[in-house]
């Protein structure tokens, strides 16, 4: 399994319910790599212990 942060115990990762637009994103795979355009991504969020839903026993 590929880990971006192999030295951190990352758990409770969820996608946010919205997209973020990044302006002037380089178009590396196009005919002119110096051109830019808008790029939309779905951010991820790590829920820490204080953010996670706590169910009482």
UniProtKB/TrEMBL annotation:
Ranges in a coiled coil: none
UniProt organism field: Dreissena polymorpha
Domain called Amyloidogenic glycoprotein heparin-binding: residue spans: 3-49
GO molecular function: heparin binding
Pfam families registered for this protein in UniProt: APP_N
Protein name: Amyloidogenic glycoprotein heparin-binding domain-containing protein
